[in-house]
Amino acid sequence: MATGTAAVEAPPLLTAWGSCADVASLMTSLRGARDRLTVCPASDAGWQRAADRPLAELRAQASAEKGSPWSQPLVSHYARYFRDGNRTAYEGLVARRQQRLTRAVVMAAVADPVPDDGWLDEVIDGAYLLCEQSSWSWAAHDDVFTRSGDVVPDRSRPYLDLGAGEVVAQLAWLDHVLGAALDERAPGLRRRIRLETQERVIRPFLDRLDWHWLGLDGDVHNWNPWIHSNIIAAALLLVDDPDEQAAVIARCIEGLDRFLASIPADGAIDEGFAYWWNGAGRALEGLALLEEASGGVLDPDLPVVRALVAFPHRMHLGGRWFVNVADGPARAHDGLPWDMLHRWAVRLGDSEAAAHAAAFAAVEPEPNAAAGLGRVLTSLTQLARTSGCSEPSKQPLLPVSWGTYLPSVQIMVARQSPGSSDGLTLAAKGGHNGEHHNHRDVGSVVVAVDGVPLLVDAGQPTYTAQTFGPDRYRIRAMQSAWHSVPAPFGLEQGTGSSFAATVLQEPTAEEPTLALGLGAAYGLDHAEQWIRTSLMNRGLGSVVIDDRWNLPAQAPEAAPDVDITYLVAGTVSVGTDATATITSVGIPTVSSPVGLHLRWKPATAVVLVDEWHLDDPLLSDIWGEKLTRIRFRMPAENRASGAFTLTVEATP
Could you tell me which residues come within 8 angstroms of residue 490 by beta carbon, excluding any fewer than 6 positions away? Predict the structure, then answer.
């Protein structure tokens, strides 16, 4: 087994748990762990209550696909990533296979008696297909091409990535829930599952320390908790040797510690709200498993965990809309495990986070197979939906008073109506362009009215090979030119942590104003060569974004123009009197029209309007057919130095 670790400053888990996290101690505390888990085998009486949960959609889809041919990912699908950059052809087929299997497991688990007609065979077929699948990793992550030039998986060198973690956790949970029935119906299947788990996950995890997601180089991102938490499930449920099980869990604790040690004191996630669920949220799930499995010996009530639990509600705009920095949609996906967040908030006594999560859990549809089998089973067997989450709400609560400010990522969210999404909400961001899943968005703003963003961040397009390659910033959604930021001399912002904002004024509840020096984001000599001040004026019911600049002599290759850009959703109407109106017409899911009125100074700024027609469903499903870029081009006398003020008000 490979050994070694990276030095972590004040690792929170090991600091709190000490010798309890040692292999020897874990062998003792994990004895009988499976019997302590909330998710029980299907023979447990609790599954009779789970059968009463809302499952109409899942049941209908499972019934429709039962007995039909399974999706079959082929080598031509796998090879497409290396040939033309398409990753969805393969990943989509794999996802459909795994989601079908998740639905079949649920149907088999809630059947009375087990096994029920056909459902167990459906599970057996799906599980065996995964065992036969040449690779559990996704082509976009596999290093086979860079190592050998091959475009087919190398069975002798399995790649341990997000996809492999999801498969092994799915097999672990179905083995745990249906194990006895599987032994009776398909003897040998569980042995095959354990063999594949050893070869594809456990041995590569223990034997190699070169996985980038371990964080040994100091760069810790969402892969770390996502994979480690899935391996925790696999170790608890599929590793029968106590020595090996404890060794795997000990290494997972070390890995999670690197992630938690990277979290700033304010709990901010630079990847944003959407990636919180598959980063911090996965860490919380892994910690909950460790606490259950150890009978409470591994107690995760730590300051960093409390900070993480508070992050989602701090990024809320209203309804299903959230501040979406980096690669994330502006509208929350259906099927998020709000019940998990609610349990954590209650566990830690965070009433604001609990109220917010409870409101979402109350109106959330039934468990979604896309969330993964572990999350679905946990949701079905927990009491959150009937205890504290049962009263529906037309709109999730906004327990935060005036808003929030997270200094580690320099994000302010300020509300016109404290504790409500009514009226205007302003989100302003500083940060730097070396953040995880970064967009060149230093200094960007989002403005929502009644919870609906109209000055927007486009968010995440469909991933391709280009997304994480050298041409990432040729993608429009990633460019500063298509964010609500300035463009001095037509410059794009630079890439890397040195292209950053300098905070000149931090917001407070009494004065929700964020002032940033943006010069460094464009490679200028001084941060204060461009100052952007974003403020919420509650008394006047307006948002003001004020830009002031004093630029150096024009760079030889730069454009002569100085522009200030705003990205807009909905329908735009530009007047002739230095005003414009934006309405929500055209934005899907927005049933009650809302609007913004814009006015600006100097009125002599030239207004340029560009339409971005959206052909990517990840963007069009959120924003509709188009987004609109409004560029204010400064008059010649205001290029080297000047000021521009945009005032935003809700339309009557």
Answer: 558, 559, 560, 561, 562, 563
* Residue among 458, 448, 343 nearest 395 (CA): 448
Nearest to 187 by CA among 128, 246, 227: 128
Half-sphere exposure of 638 (CA within 13 A, CB side): 21
* For helices 119-132 and 189-197, angle between their N-to-C axes, nearest 10 degrees: 30
Which residues, including other chains, have CB under 8 Å from residue 652's CB and lie 6 or more apart? none
Tokens of 19: 């010798």
Cα-based distances in Å from 64 to 57, 119, 198, 334, 582: 11, 12, 34, 21, 44
Please classify residue 558 by burial: count the beta carbons closer than 10 Å to its beta carbon, then call 0-12 exposed, 13-18 middle and 19+ buried: middle
Helix (H, G, I), strand (E, B) or coil at 8: coil
Q: Which of 553, 434, 432, 580 is nearest to 488 (CA)?
A: 553
Query: Could you tell me whether strands 571-574 and 606-613 are parallel, antiparallel, or unpaired per DSSP bridges?
Result: unpaired
Interacting residues of 416 by C-beta distance below 8 A, sequence separation 6+: 422, 423, 424, 425, 536, 538, 541
Per residue in 124-165, pLDDT (tens digit) is 999 999 999 999 999 999 999 999 999 999 999 999 999 999
Under the banding of pLDDT at 50, 70 and 90, the label for residue 51 is: low
CA distance 642 to 636: 10
User: Quick one: which of 160, 171, 168, 170 has its CA closest to 137?
Assistant: 160
Residue 556 neighbours by CB distance under 10 Å: 5
Distance CA 573, CA 580 (A): 6
Residues forming beta bridges with residue 234, ordered by sequence position: none
DSSP string, 534-565: EEEETTTTEEEEEEEEE--SPPTTS-S--EEE
- In 364-509, DSSP assigns E strands to 403-406, 411-415, 424-429, 432-433, 445-449, 452-455, 486-487, 496-500, 502-505
Residue 137 and residue 201 in contact, taking contact as beta carbons nearer than 8 Å: no
Task: Tell me if the bond preceding 392 is cis, omega within 30° of 0.
Answer: no
Q: How far apart are the first and last CA of the chain?
A: 67
Polymer length of the chain: 652
| Segment 303-361, tens digit of pLDDT | 999 999 999 999 999 999 999 999 989 999 988 999 999 999 999 999 999 989 998 98
Instruction: Give the count of alpha carbons within 13 A of 131, CB side only.
Output: 20
Query: What string of DSSP letters covers 154-170?
Result: -TTS---SHHHHHHHHH
Name the CA radius of gyration of the chain, rounded. 26
Concatenating the DSSP letter of every residue in 23-82 gives: HHHHHHHTTTGGGG-SS--TTSTHHHHHTTS--HHHHHHHHHHTTSPPP---HHHHHHHH
For residues 132 and 262, what is the distance between their CA atoms, to the nearest angstrom? 38
- Mean pLDDT is lowest, of 99-108, 333-342, 383-392, 494-503, for 383-392
Closest CA to 402 of 540, 513, 502: 513
- The letter for the amino acid at 340 is M
Residue entry with tokens 């940033």 = 516
b/e per residue 520-550 (b: at least 16 CB within 10 A): bbbebeebbbbbbbbbbbbeeebbbbbbbbe
Cβ neighbours for 299, distance < 8 A, ≥ 6 positions apart: 16, 17, 291
For residues 566 and 631, give the distance between their C-alpha atoms in angstroms, rounded to a whole number. Answer: 6
Cβ contacts of residue 633 below 8 Å, gap of 6+? 561, 562, 563, 605, 606, 607, 608
Model pTM? 0.93
Q: Which amino acid, 185?
A: R
